[in-house]
Amino acid sequence: MPKTASVSPRPALATDLMTSLGELLRQWLPRQRWFAGKDRPVSELGLLSMTELFPGCLHLLVHTGHGGVPGPGGASAGDCYQLLLGVRKNLSPRLGRALIGRAERGPLAGLTIYDALHDPRSAQLLLERLRHPGTAGPLRFEGDPSVPVPAGLPPRLLETEQSNSSLVYGDEFILKVFRRIQPGVNPDLEVPVALAGQGCRRVPAPVAWFRTTHPQGATLGVLQPYLRDASDGWALALQALASGDDFTVQAHELGRAMAEVHLALAAAFPGSGHDDNGSTAAAMTERLNSAARSVPALRPFVPGLQSAFGALATCDSGPPAQRVHGDLHLGQVLRAGREWFVIDFEGEPSRPLVERCAAQSPVRDIAGMLRSFDYAARQRRPWRPEWARRCREAFCGGYAALAGWDPRKKHGLLRAYETDRAVYEVLYEARHRPDWLPVPMAAIERLAVRGD
Q1: Angle at Cα 341 formed by Cα 338 and Cα 343, nearest 5°?
Q2: What distance in Å separates the CA atoms of residue 309 and residue 416, rounded to the nearest whole number?
Q3: Alpha helix locations (H) across 98-232?
Q4: What's the CA gap between 296 and 130, in Å, rounded?
């Protein structure tokens, strides 16, 4: 193994570190799947926190700014990101994909910088930090003492990275490393801990986690059991479509599982009350207008879509507002054996943490899953709308059997939340996957013109 450069977190190094890293990170960050500012230049880059986790591995929190250019949905122009950077004289060829670049100036001049999560040695040392609760500068490593984590579990970085990065250890545990950091307790830690307290077994309970106290308190990563023989709902749905199989039995069971999770959430976070449909409709309309400014294809449908939100303000208030998943779709559920499990309670990372933790109508989650069935059905040619319709019916039927109310009887609510979800999908696809834009646009046309 190439010799690792030892870097000590001296004050001078911390102060001058961006002299070495600034230009490298400006080039590297926009190419990362989890970086939210791909369509905006990184005009500001500042170091918020630096900790040497172990020799040759620096933990950084960096602030990125975009010169006052608004982010998606009018969000703040600046963000905080978590980086774990390896520092070596020379990089092994097997770590070529992790390369960030060679520093030309500053305290790291002449050294190679890379993403340490790709490095098995760094990943194993990170697990050791989690196995032994303690501190490292402003970092706090904590865990559930009743669940032992074995030493020496081989790590592998999952290639299907989304808004975060995930390491699997020995097919026993999975560590989600949050990339975009906001102050506060991340719901992907808060919610599973609360659900475990309710005895809900549909959500894997956290085993260990780490956080920072500077510059503000924030969750940085969560270690949970890894369901090694599980398949996600998206893959299972596509398999059923490819083989011509029906998916209604699985969809019905998934509906029951989601109702169970919602009931446990309501018990874990009591006292939410009813949602204000008027303010919810206003927020949905604002998101629609903002998306239409960014995606011209959406503009002809704005009047019809606004009618869905207008109807929301006067329709049945529906079930009480409560804590919800916030970003539910087939990729956020796993099936192991005959059981469904729900994962990834972080919500939409682009939204402020206070908004993601707020009580909302459970119809929001239901609408997300119904949209996901439609997405799956459109992956095959010819499109099979009847497959999606049957799955939607089965899911709602399973949910109603346990929840005590039927989403299909809340037509105004369901239409509004489906419309809001489709608007979000249009903006997402336009920014990240333009080839997929026709999928949500088909739903936009249906929801705006037919009012379904």
Answers
A1: 155
A2: 5
A3: 120-131, 187-197
A4: 47
Residues 6+ apart with CB under 8 A from 423: 284, 287, 288, 291, 298, 305, 444
| pTM strictly above 0.70 | yes
User: CA 76, CA 65: separation in Å to the nearest integer?
Assistant: 9
Quote the CA–CA distance of 240 and 365 in Å, as a whole number: 23
Give Cα separations from 64 to 39, 208, 234, 248, 428 (angstroms). Answer: 13, 28, 33, 45, 21
pLDDT, tens digit, 9 for 90 and up, residues 122-155 = 999 999 999 999 999 999 999 999 999 999 999 9
CA-CA-CA-CA torsion sign (344, 348, 353, 359): negative
Distance CA 345, CA 204 (A): 11
Residue 154 CB neighbour total at 10 angstroms: 11
How much is the pLDDT for 77?
59
- Which amino acid appears at position 293 of this protein? R
Q: What is the arrangement of strands in the sheet containing 218-225, beginning at the earlier edge strand? A: 134-136, 139-143, 208-212, 218-225, 173-178, 164-169, 155-157
Angle separating helix axes 233-243 and 363-377, nearest 10 degrees: 40
Give every CB contact of residue 84 below 8 A, 6+ residues apart in sequence.
53, 57, 58, 59, 60, 115, 116, 117, 122, 126, 177
CA distance 36 to 334: 26
- At what angle are helices 302-312 and 411-432 packed, to 10 degrees? 140
Please state, in angstroms and rounded to a whole number, the distance separating the CA atoms of residues 331 and 337: 17
The contacts of residue 17 (CB under 8 Å, 6+ apart) are 47, 50, 58, 60, 106, 107, 108
Find, among 94, 79, 334, the residue nearest to 183 by Cα.
79
For each of the domains in the chain, give its residue range(s) and CATH number, in order of start.
11-223 (no CATH), 231-450 (3.90.1200.10)
- Bridge-based pairing of strands 208-212 and 218-225 is antiparallel
pLDDT tens sequence across 405-433: 999 999 899 999 999 999 999 998 998 88
Phi, psi values for residue 111, rounded to 5°: -105, 150
Q: Residue 444 and residue 449: Cα distance in Å, rounded?
A: 8
- How far is residue 262's CA from residue 239's CA, in Å, rounded to a whole number? 28
Provide the total of helices (H) and of strands (E) in the chain, helices listed first. Answer: 12, 16
Residues 373 and 391: their CA atoms lie apart, in Å, by 7
